[in-house]
Write a structure and sequence with these properties.
Strand content: 25-35%
Shape: globular
Helix content: 25-40%
Structural class: alpha/beta
Radius of gyration: 19 Å
CATH architecture of one domain: 3-Layer(aba) Sandwich
Order of helices and strands: HEHEHEEHEHHEHHHEE
CATH superfamily of one domain: Vaccinia Virus protein VP39
Number of strands: 8
CATH class of one domain: Alpha Beta
């Protein structure tokens, strides 16, 4: 993502849905003392986490802001690049968010983003998600709503970026693999880091959790590997350019 963004010393880069901020901090180090990273989050608690991590890393050229990516409170043509790692897919109005991204970018500025691919290419997430749906713990995903897989195809990403007015759209597949020793370790990893799935898993009773665990264990049997289990996954990375004046 950072290579696709092409940050240069002295630029101003906006990170949307920054989470803990680590990806943006790597960009900040490339901007130099004259550059600026705007590390933004919609959730105040996450912005506090990013601020603490930035202070721990000693990153000084950062402005921390609460920003709704669907209504960015920045002037037109005010930043040189926008970075968003695993964020756009969770936004209720993704076309609005990308249009706002285009608006705040200077001519020739770039956006770089990453999202998860289709569920059939991501058993790491889909095994648990489908188990929870099948057992009635969560509704089937809305194909038009926000979620892990809402931007899960190159065609979908390309159409969104094109509709938002971007040029030079580049999309690539990013295969990943997740290894774990036990099913319990796998479920805990999802419960700690998978957004909406976390909420559902944390709300299960002990009996419900055991039923989910048994079904997940059966599904993971086909991915057995030495020392445990290894599940494939697929991310999609994209970059595009705001048209020059």
């Amino acid at each position: 993502m950072i290579a696709r963004l092409r940050p240069e010393p002295g630029q101003t880069i906006l990170e949307l849905a920054a989470g803990a901020g680590d990806t943006g901090f790597e960009v900040a180090e490339r901007l130099g003392e004259e550059g600026l990273l705007i590390s933004s989050e919609f959730a105040p608690a996450m912005l506090d986490v990013a601020r603490r991590r930035g202070e721990q890393r000693g990153v000084r050229n950062v402005d921390y802001r609460l920003i709704d990516a669907q209504q960015i409170e920045l002037a037109d043509d005010s930043v040189d690049g926008v970075l968003c790692r695993l964020g756009y897919m969770f936004m209720p109005d993704r076309p609005a968010a990308l249009s706002e991204t285009r608006r705040v970018l200077r001519p020739g500025g770039r956006v770089a983003l990453a999202v998860w691919g289709a569920p059939q290419r991501n058993p790491f997430f889909s095994i648990i998600a489908m188990t929870l749906v099948e057992r009635g713990h969560m509704p089937p995903p809305d194909p038009n709503g926000p979620g892990l897989f809402s931007m899960g195809s190159p065609e979908r990403i390309g159409a969104l970026l094109d509709d938002a007015g971007f040029d030079d759209i580049q999309i690539e597949e990013l295969p990943v693999r997740f290894a774990f020793e036990t099913v319990d370790e796998y479920i805990e990893l999802i419960a700690d880091a998978a957004g909406p799935l976390t909420i559902v898993l944390r709300g299960l009773t002990e009996a419900e959790r055991e039923e989910v665990r048994a079904q997940v264990e059966r599904a993971c049997a086909g991915f057995a590997a030495e020392g445990g289990c290894e599940l494939p996954g697929l991310g999609l990375g994209a970059a595009a350019t705001a048209p020059s004046a």
